[in-house]
Amino acid sequence: MTTAGGHPSHSAIPFRRARIPVSRGLLSGGLLMLLGIWGGLVPFVGPKFGYAYTPDTGWTWTWGRFWLEVIPAIAVVLGGLGLARARTHTTGMVSGWLASVGGAWFILGPVLSTLWTGGPSAAGDPVSATTAGRVLQEIGFFSGLGVVVLFLGAVALGRFAVAAQPKPREPRA
Length: 173
Prior knowledge:
The chain is an all-alpha fold.
């Protein structure tokens, strides 16, 4: 199909069906899967090393851990897996959004949980005795983890948005 000027149309390949090399999301997908695994396991394994939120016992299940750490971790791991295996624009975009939403929930979840608890965060309190330790726990469990996940998800979204654009063909002589 050509345009009025005789140049080939960019709609020759449907945007959503454009094939993308698997390598397009492999690095960001792999990193997101690792970060998601970290976010989902650190509340259960961290207490063994003094890196925890209350309750500071390993493998203790709470609703706060479920909603604020396990659910976003699952979203990030699934988003990362989807990005690592994405072969189409649609799969890459949906996976990037899923990972980004998981990252945003790591950031906002502890603050928003005060709405359903009526006061303190459902995440609990950092158990470190020092201010620096509490800051590192907050960064490693929630805000820092969420920022890195959100950044990688946004980068992947940008790569997949650009990747699906068909290359213009040169006019035939």
